[in-house]
């Protein structure tokens, strides 16, 4: 008796229908070898590396860059940027294997990320499909952050939690060094800033050559003297703006925890 034949399109449809059923997808991997690539597409669509232990497990699971499971990832959460950046240097640039990521969350937990000690260089241009970026908490202003923004040609949504102690009046005309591609991402989705002091962060956003086109703004800050910068930012987006939420807490309360982990 011949083995029943199902067209590949029907098999793909069946696996896609089960995209939220992780245990079932794991079973599908055992059914037939041709089913494995499609199931991996869903099993590894979201990757979370929140600790050094997670990083070691991931490197053991996907040790080579050439056939890395990272190519299936669409959402990437990094909860230990320091360990990841250090591991990337030691393993020959494995972050580049996440070339199809659409959403990147660099969550440093309770400690502010200092990009002068932990550069974000491995993430610059690592995924040409990146549309959403969340970073925080982070010490600002950070040229590294803006290098990352300027290396993401499809970036729409930006979420930053941090502390900016700069005056905002310093000359930062050379914040983008020679050799960095002058890419202008669309920035047409949402901007969410929760910052203790706006300083040069707002100025660097306003200095982007093609302007800002955010449709949604959520702005939280703690210094009354930053109102001028906030006003300039809102005016810079006014042509496209559809939603605006602003809040000022002079005590600086809860701004570090404005976006808790899910």
Q: Your description of this structure?
A:
The protein is of the alpha/beta class and 262 residues long. The chain has a domain at 138-262. It contains eight helices and eight strands, in the order H-H-H-E-H-E-H-E-E-H-E-E-H-E-H-E. Strands 1-2-3-4-5-6-7-8 form an eight-stranded parallel sheet. Strand 4 (132-140), helix 6 (143-150) and strand 5 form a beta-alpha-beta unit. Helix 2 packs antiparallel against helix 3 (36-43) and helix 7 packs parallel to helix 8. The longest helix has 11 residues, at 227-237. It is elongated. The N and C termini lie far apart (52 Å). Mean pLDDT is 82; it is low at 253-262.
Topology record:
Layout: H1 8-17, H2 22-31, H3 36-43, E1 46-49, H4 52-61, E2 75-78, H5 81-90, E3 103-107, E4 132-140, H6 143-150, E5 157-164, E6 190-196, H7 199-206, E7 216-221, H8 227-237, E8 243-248
Helix pairs in contact: 2-3, 7-8
């Amino acid at each position: 008796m011949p083995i029943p034949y199902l067209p590949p399109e029907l098999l793909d449809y069946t696996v896609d229908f089960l995209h939220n059923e992780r245990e079932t997808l794991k079973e599908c991997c055992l059914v037939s070898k041709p089913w494995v690539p499609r199931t991996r597409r869903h099993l590894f669509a979201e990757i979370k590396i929140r600790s050094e232990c997670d990083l070691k497990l991931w490197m053991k699971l996907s040790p080579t860059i050439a056939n890395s499971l990272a190519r299936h990832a669409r959402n990437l959460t990094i909860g230990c940027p320091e360990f990841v950046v250090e591991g990337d240097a030691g393993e020959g640039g494995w972050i580049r294997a996440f070339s199809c990521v659409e959403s990147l969350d660099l969550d440093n937990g309770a400690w502010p990320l200092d990009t002068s000690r932990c550069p974000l260089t491995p993430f610059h241009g690592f995924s040409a499909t990146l549309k959403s970026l969340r970073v925080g908490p982070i010490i600002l202003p950070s040229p590294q952050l803006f290098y990352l923004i300027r290396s993401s040609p499809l970036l729409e949504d930006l979420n930053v939690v941090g502390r900016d102690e700069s005056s905002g009046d310093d000359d930062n005309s050379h914040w983008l060094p020679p050799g960095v591609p002058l890419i202008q991402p669309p920035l047409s989705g949402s901007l969410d800033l929760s910052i203790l002091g706006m300083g040069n962060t707002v100025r660097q956003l306003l200095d982007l050559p093609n302007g800002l086109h955010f449709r949604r703004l959520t702005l939280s800050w703690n210094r009354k003297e930053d109102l001028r910068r906030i006003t300039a930012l809102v005016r810079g987006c006014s042509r496209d703006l559809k939603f605006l939420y602003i809040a000022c807490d002079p005590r600086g309360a809860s701004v570090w925890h404005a976006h808790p982990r899910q």
